[in-house]
Design a protein that fits this description.
Layout lengths: L6 H9 L3 E4 L1 H5 L5 E2 L5 E2 L4 H12 L3 E5 L5 H10 L3 E3 L5 H12 L6 E5 L5 H4 L4 E4 L5 H6 L2 E2 L8 H14 L1
C-alpha cells in the first residue's frame, strides 16, 4: 500500500518521471458511455486534458495510454495530440506496461501511472509515481501517491500534467 507523499517527496518522484501512462475511461473521460441504438459509443473528453498531454510531450515526457476497452474515437484523438504509445482493448494491463518500459528503456521509477479503477492496479503497483482522479475507486485511492482535485474527464489529467511539469522546473 502506497501512502500519500510529503510535498517534497512528491516533487522528488515527479521530477524523475520520463513517461506517464494514462487509462482512458474514468481518467481521460468521465467514465460514462453514451450508447446509440446501433451500438455506437460516444465519450466526452476535456480540451484542458488534451493540452496537458501536449505540454508533457513538448517537455520531452513520453505519454502512453493503456486501456481495457477499444475506442476508435479516442485513438483518433490521441493521434491528433501526438501520443504514439497507445494500447487499447487490453484487459491485463501489466504486460502492456512492461512492454512499454522495455521499448522506452525506462525503469519503474521513471514511470507514472494515472488510473481510476481496479484494472489499473497491476500497473500502479509497479510505477514510481501513482496518480489518480478524485472520483477513483477506493482501492485505487488507497495506493495513490497523489489524488487530483478534479474528477476523471474534467481536468484531472491537466492537473497531473501541471504537477509533473512544475516538478521538472524546480
Amino acid at each position: 500500500m502506497a501512502a500519500r507523499l510529503t510535498a517534497a517527496g512528491l516533487r522528488k518522484r515527479a521530477a524523475q518521471i520520463r513517461c506517464v501512462v494514462f487509462d482512458i475511461d474514468g481518467v481521460l473521460t468521465d467514465g460514462k458511455l453514451y450508447l446509440g441504438p446501433d451500438g455506437q459509443e460516444w465519450k466526452t473528453v476535456s480540451v484542458r486534458d488534451g493540452l496537458g498531454l501536449k505540454r508533457l510531450l513538448q517537455a520531452g515526457i513520453e505519454v502512453a495510454v493503456i486501456s481495457g476497452r477499444p475506442s476508435p474515437a479516442l485513438q483518433n484523438r490521441l493521434n491528433s495530440l501526438g501520443v504514439k504509445h497507445v494500447c487499447l482493448n487490453t484487459e491485463d494491463k501489466r504486460p502492456a506496461y512492461e512492454r512499454l518500459l522495455r521499448t522506452l528503456g525506462l525503469s519503474d521509477a521513471q514511470c507514472a501511472v494515472m488510473g481510476d479503477d481496479t484494472p489499473d492496479l497491476s500497473m500502479m503497483q509497479r510505477a514510481g509515481l501513482v496518480l489518480t482522479v478524485a472520483d477513483a475507486h477506493p482501492d485505487v485511492l488507497r495506493v495513490a501517491h497523489w489524488v487530483s482535485r478534479h474528477p476523471g474527464g474534467n481536468g484531472a489529467v491537466r492537473e497531473a500534467s501541471d504537477l509533473l511539469l512544475a516538478a521538472r522546473r524546480k
